[in-house]
């Protein structure tokens, strides 16, 4: 056989073998599926709303002050609507100013938030024509709108919580001036109620005068499945260890992450080594992006507390805060961050569904509430006083669980809410203890 013929024959054999092997690879099906397939688990979400800073940062009080008297909206829904309207008013000529010793005004609106935040946060909730981001180390929980009748304009002041800085702005719109002027002329109407100023507390607190009657509610509720939480918090749920206790609690765990689910709530912690690189995002922005990524705002949640590395959101019901104080707390979403990494995430897993029952509850008269507060030795430590709904999980005659929401007066001390004590309760206890 000639050498050229042998080479051609060998080439034909090699090509044929290659085609057979390629065809076999295309049609090969392994006997076993891969041990872990990240794509095999769909991305879960909790079905909540997508929230922005302007949605969660809502004032706890809007107070109209005129000639030494204080007024607020009788219905908190009107207060929310006023703030939403005010968010469209353009703030111009933003500037830093010298501290004023006396900032009394003939007609002024004080808008109060539940926590100190950096001034830059107001860029995201107000209509500013220039940025507040450049003003650093400035924290505040309120701002003021002065009605300048001589100039027929509105003047805005942000005062730092330390009282050592002030930032001013103008609202030059004549229509906005007329709108506020109209409100001040209507403060004696039923839409508004007089408020009492408490100056003995940590900061100025306003309490509506008189007595209120609110509705108590019983709700059916849904509980977010534990498996959904596992799929959200772990990038590869197939590699997660799971254990259950006799009480019904569930723990999911990997080397660095752990979730404990019990009592209709969850606690997530991540102890992985942290990235030391700083991030340009605030903890509020990081938190909103993270919770929105799994649609975690399943009810009306609003900003409650803010620090450089943590943020919490409180559940609201018909414009009133909800208090639970159990462990886990079913009225809060709490997150802690280290740079750009989530290290702790606690939240309720319940979502209110339908009203099962209602009843009327007459609250204590505000005068009685103030008398009770003045009896406290730590009155100067009180950060806020609000009417709030107390949330508990109850069982009916058929053993079915439901959520009970009952209104009461609450006080906030060291960022913790507790019921305002009944009048003379402490005095009676001291007397009984001395006998």
Automatic annotation (TrEMBL):
Region (Disordered): 415-435
Transmembrane segments: 9-28
Lineage of origin: Bacteria, Bacillati, Bacillota, Bacilli, Bacillales
Protein's name in the database: YycH family regulatory protein
Natural source organism: Oceanobacillus locisalsi
InterPro entries for this protein: YycH, YycH/YycI_2
Lineage top rank: taxon: Bacteria
Domain Regulatory protein YycH: 4-423
Record's keyword terms, sorted: Membrane, Transmembrane, Transmembrane helix
Magnesium in keyword set: no
This protein's record includes keyword Transmembrane: yes
